Amino acid sequence: MKKYSILVMAAAFLIAFACTKKENDTTAPVITIASPTENQMFNAGDSVTVSFTVTDEDLHGYSFAIIKTATSDTIVDADIDTHANASVNEIFELVDAATQYKLVVGAEDHTGNTSTKSVNFHTM
After folding, report:
1. How far is CA 104 from CA 6, 21, 39, 76, in A?
2. ∠ Cα 66 34 108 (to 5°)
3. Tens of pLDDT along 54-94?
4. 65-71: long-range contacts (C-beta < 8 A, 24 or more apart)?
5. Which of 15, 24, 27, 61 is the S-S candidate for 81 at Cβ 3.0 to 4.6 Å?
6. What are 52's strand-pairing partners?
7. What is the pLDDT of residues 103-118, one digit of tens each?
8. pTM given for the model
9. What's the whole-number average pLDDT of the chain?
10. Rounded to an integer, what distance in angstroms lies between the CA atom of residue 64 and that of residue 104?
11. Mapping DSSP to helix (H, G, I), strand (E, B) and coil, where does residue 78 land?
12. What CATH number does the domain located at 24-123 have?
């Protein structure tokens, strides 16, 4: 019975403190997109390196998507829960020629402050 009580107390502690709000936090997460750059051009079949950071002293999570702007088709969609600053460096192949893309990165902290940044790029 003692082991059970300790497990219940440990679980309660983790639940209570895993996602906590900072009372007076009005600062939104900071997103810095390093790659691709605005209006960067690629050839069809090239790979694009998606590289960005998300920082916040109370970060809850971030998301990113690559969208074909003409059709609104989402070709990459990721939603990550994290409780630490994030650095992303992923490679994706751009198959279609003459296509406009948009990278959209979003983030939210535990208080509900949000940020969004985007860059447009294309293939020829």
Report:
1. 44, 25, 14, 10
2. 65
3. 999 999 999 999 999 999 999 999 999 998 999 999 999 99
4. 65/103, 65/104, 66/92, 66/101, 66/102, 66/103, 67/101, 67/102, 67/104, 68/96, 68/99, 68/100, 68/101, 69/100, 69/101, 69/102, 69/120, 70/99, 70/100
5. 61
6. 33, 88
7. 999 999 999 999 999 9
8. 0.84
9. 88
10. 5
11. strand
12. 2.60.40.10
Distance (Å, rounded) from C-alpha 104 to C-alpha 122? 14
CA 89 to CA 47: how far, in whole Å?
Answer: 12
AA letter at 119: V
Residue 105 tokens, joined: 């990165």
Residue 35 to residue 88: CA distance in whole angstroms: 10
Q: How many CA atoms lie within 13 A of 61 on its CB side?
A: 8
Beta bridge partners, 1, equal none
Bridge partners (DSSP) listed for residue 116: 106
Write out the DSSP string of 1-50: -HHHHHHHHHHHHHHHHHS---TT--PPPEEEEEESPTTEEE-TT-EEEE
